[in-house]
Amino acid sequence: MKNREQQRANFALENVRPLQSSEGEKEFVSYAKALPAMIHQNGLGQAMAFCYSKGKANNKPPAHAYMALYQLMQSWLCRAPQPFAGQDELMTAITTCHLQQYQIAQIEAQQFLIWVKKFAVAELAHD
């Protein structure tokens, strides 16, 4: 059985690798590096709302990268045994959960993003 760190690493790797040669690959690396600080400064809800809104903005590479990052976070945080397991939509989960669940999700997001950043830098094109 895998420990929590192995689960995070495995899920991040499996979901970052398919982004190779995709539209917005370089932007994804940049945004993945910046997201932990954004969560720390503004909170998980504000950071995810920002990614979601930017991802819906248009059909250009930066929007693709923001949406890919949002969807990756949604996939991780809304699966068992994560804080929002059973929820279909991350923003709904964030805006309807209890404070303790929100805080746990924010910590989990930060821990998961450590691996996302590492694999994005290692696997994807960047400047």
TrEMBL record:
Gene3D superfamilies: AF1862-like domain (1.10.520.30). Signal peptide: none annotated. The lineage of its organism: Bacteria, Pseudomonadati, Pseudomonadota, Gammaproteobacteria, Thiotrichales. CDD domains: Cmr5_III-B. It is found in: Cytoplasm. The keyword Nucleotide-binding does not apply. Belongs to the CRISPR system Cmr5 family. The keyword Cytoplasm applies. Keywords: Antiviral defense, Cytoplasm. It comes from the Bacteria. Coiled coil: none annotated. The gene is cmr5. GO terms for biological process: defense response to virus. It comes from Candidatus Venteria ishoeyi. This is CRISPR type III-B/RAMP module-associated protein Cmr5. One of its GO terms (cellular component) is cytoplasm.
